Automatic annotation (TrEMBL), chain A:
Gene3D superfamilies xrefs: Kinase associated domain 1, KA1 (3.30.310.80), Phosphorylase Kinase, domain 1 (3.30.200.20), Transferase(Phosphotransferase) domain 1 (1.10.510.10)
Record carries keyword Cell membrane: no
A Pfam family of this chain: Pkinase
TM ranges: 193-212
Family statement drawn from the similarity comment of this UniProt entry: Belongs to the protein kinase superfamily. CAMK Ser/Thr protein kinase family. SNF1 subfamily.
Residues annotated as binding ATP: 41
Stretches assigned to the NAF domain: 308-332
Name of protein: non-specific serine/threonine protein kinase
Species this protein is from: Gossypium darwinii
TrEMBL record, chain B:
Species this protein is from: Gossypium darwinii
InterPro entries, alphabetized: CNBL1-10, EF-hand-dom_pair, EF_hand_dom
GO cellular component: membrane
Gene Ontology MF terms in the entry: calcium ion binding; kinase binding
Family annotation (CDD domains): EFh (cd00051)
Keywords (A to Z) from UniProt: Calcium, Membrane, Metal-binding, Repeat
Gene3D superfamilies attached to this UniProt entry: EF-hand
Domain EF-hand, residue spans: 67-102, 104-139, 148-183
Domain of life: Eukaryota
Matches recorded under SMART domains: EFh (SM00054)
GO BP annotations, alphabetical order: calcium-mediated signaling
Record-given protein name: Calcineurin B-like protein
UniProt family annotation: Belongs to the calcineurin regulatory subunit family.
Compartments, record wording: Membrane
Amino acid sequence: MENKGKVLMQKYEFGKMLGQGNFAKVYYAKNIKTSQSVAIKVIEKEKVLKVGMIDQTKTEISTMSLVKHPNILELYEVMASKNKIYYVMEYANGGELFNKVAKGKLREDLARKYFQQLISAVDFCHSRGVYHRDLKPENLLLDENGTLKVSDFGLSALGESKHQDGLLHTTCGTPAYVAPEVINRKGYDGAKADIWSCGVILFVLLAGYLPFHDSNLIGMYKKISKADYKFPSWFSPDVTKLLSRILNPNPKSRISTAKIMTNSWFKKGFKLKSSHKTAEKDLPSTDTNVVFGSEANTAAFETKNHKDQLTKLNAFDIISLSSGLDLSGLFTETGEKKEVRFTSMHSASAITSKLEDFAEHLKFKVKKEVGGLLKIEKSSRGQKGALTIYAQIFEVAPSFYLVELRKSSGDTLEYRKMLEQDVRPALEDIVCTWLK
Amino acid sequence: MGCFCLKKLGHKPGYEAPINLASETPFTVNEVEALYDLFKKLSSSIIDDGLIHKEEFQLALFKNSNKQNLFADRIFDLFDIKHNGVIEFGEFVRSLSVFHPNAPEADKIAFLFRLYDLRQTGCIEAEELKEMVTALLCENNMSLSEDVVDLIVEKTMMEADTKRDGKIDDEEWKEFVKKNPSIIKIMTLSDLKELTLAFPSFVMNSGVSDLQQPVKN
């Protein structure tokens, strides 16, 4: 069916087809209202039903919404009609990374840059229990800034290349990127299998050709199983050392992502900031849905003219702290709150210096802003870039304060872990009560 | 095409067609279908009858079906538009729509006014305000002396009750919210923007016609 020019759900206007597979076609499209470019994957339900993958489809959508990372193609929303499912995704207009390799091997520093971004994405997903299982050239895209975007994370079951025998095949019919244990159809560790594929990808970037190739499939399987490959002469000793630890046929002794990230070749010039420039499109819920006190609306309080004066809470501000008024619990199973709040009878300056002490202890940078607002920033890198926390002190009544901590950027899991392990114990002696 | 199956098998009483609910709320048909998935879960957590009972509402909010809370009670009462002690699917969608980031601010302001008007007199009296502040302090084991509570209430009344009659009427409330926009932040749930990703089951049984969905943005 020709979709070009058609409008989906009065929201997206279809453009040209970008790609096609067994289950789906991918189109370029534009959000009519915002002009944002997107890629829409149109899946025929009938085909999904035929291969009995209904449940996987649902799990995959949930999984994909879990893995928001600057180097992972984002799923914005899902739509459906009677016969079709539409995945509205981030559009990477730089095309496939491997179009670059097709023109010749990459310089070592450029290959490293892409590899860093790839490992960063893979490590992030693994920390969420999500495995790609089908990392291959077609899944590595570039956006207009040249930032790597891994596609189809969590989409493995609907991957175009998975045949009914459960084996992974690439479109050209070669398992060139697949780990030996996957070929041998043993139960395998998704994390280690992904790392193997990353190794093959790095090899291809630097060499301009595959490490394992043979005129027939059986021959290729044999080479993969024995990790039978040779480094080209131009590979530096550091990179050959790293690659031999990745392309280790034994998944148990194969290097982990954590270890790769401490490798000296890998670490060179590892600037998360650059790859995270467009980064941290964290769920808006985490950042914007605060009860009060975001930078934008502090002005709404009486602090405008007094730099050091605290924002005073009125009776309705106090009421809105009730857990009974926070309906976000309806949408989650865990009941985790977005902000952490506590009350204190210590003076505002005592609270401030306590927060500063603790931040310093954890090697965080602290910046004082107006109206009892503190910006606390972690300088070392986290899985999704620098962790930034805002702490704000409000006056409830004379000598009675409310402190609110909220994450402004950085990884949510890392933030929660830090709250439980470091923040709560460190602040215990100034806290009167932690709010529910 | 364009015809919706209104009596799909398996729908419980109180079900309303997503297309109708979408036409009167900021939600798309798909989003209403996603909300139905959530509704099914919430309405069957204790009694599987297609209706959200008070205990099921408390369980969802507090992960505890016995936890009483003044404000949760008020929200439940407002969601229960027909006042029959349960929340039906249509009531659930229409009430939640007020919390949509794109819902009109006036609706949010009015909803919150009714919520805080505990005795439904058409005004928020100073006593009601004190009762609510006390309830919040109690909920969080915050012990403030009654004098301090009175002071907090008085101060807010001074600002809000411009007619000085001891209560905040509709008009005064609108003015007060204009000056203190932070107090209606609780009326916006960003979760409502990610419904299709959070509850994707609808994709397999959506009733929407292909490429012709009559939906507004």
